[in-house]
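In response to reviewer comment 3 from the previous cycle, which asked for concrete evidence that the modeling workflow produces usable outputs, we include below a single protein chain processed end to end. The sequence was submitted unchanged, and the resulting structure tokens are shown without manual editing.
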Amino acid sequence: MMQKLDVAILGATGAVGQRFIQLLEEHPWFRVAEVNGSERSAGQLYGESVRWVLDGEPPDAVSNLLVKPLDAEFTSPLIFSALPKAPAQTREAELAAAGHVVCTNASANRMAPDVPLLLPEANADHIRLIDVQRERRGWTSGALVANSNCTTMPVVMSLAPLRQFGVRRFTIVSQQAISGAGYPGVPSMDILDNVIPYIGGEEDKLETEPLRMLGQLANDAIDWLDAVASASCNRVPVIDGHLVNISVDLAEQPSHDDIIAAWNGFRGPEPVPSLPSAPEQPVMYLPKPDRPQIRRDRHAGNGMTTSVGRLRACPILGYKFVALSHNTIRGAAGCSILNAELLAVQGYLHDFQPRAATFA
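The workflow returned the following structure tokens.
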């Protein structure tokens, strides 16, 4: 049996931190060995300090871990960060400089030119920015790798298979779950019987992150996708699942059948499809006219599949459709774990190399 790699989770008592713990409970490569929480919970057992908001209970092995303060010394080679933006700004880089590989959900360092903004099926080659990062920052073995905003995820997953047709312009109108705001989320008097047409900072992220992620690595920098994006973001009263309505202008004007075939046939480059957290089908087209639906489709592919539907003509841009991803799995913790798996097989996790038999 392969010895698992110890990992630490920063922000482990929050909603995304809890999702990390849940997804890693039976992971074949990684084992949660250290947890960090708020100042209030530091020094307590995790199981006694956490307000668990997911189904079930936290695993016993993690419940008995002592919660560390953020400035503590961590020994785990791999660190998953679910920190808020402010503490992530400096602490993530400090840990990477100390030799840890940090996979972060935080936005603080996401758009730094030498930080890979990684979604393995769409831009696995961007992982090579780590070499640039280490050279520029003088890091010998540490690294900082980010995944995108949770609503960017269904946008990039649905547009990545369409790059072959020449993506030129697209609009996004989001319907975002309350878990995207973290626990306790949006006050009930604001969200019940309501849709809130504003989420601070989200629209700028949706107009920039996809262009970077859908771009090409050229030497030591990302050549962003030459396209224009416009976004409008809304908070809706569902717990999990971000749904986006997208209209897109494609240079080659493919048929609808060609687009659907591109979505259903999309897999990403090797070795991504063979990684433990990779879904069998990353993008799935649902032909029924009323799908995808958040409640019915957010758990497709164990929460890692992006469901797409309602492809039809757009009188302004040419094509329009709906895409849905689970925001705390594919959009957050699950993507970070998949990123770490790719780092492992590409040799970026120190001397840890999972045996081929575990992901073939």
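The radius of gyration is 20 Å. We consider this sufficient to address the reviewer's concern, and the full set will be provided in the supplementary archive.
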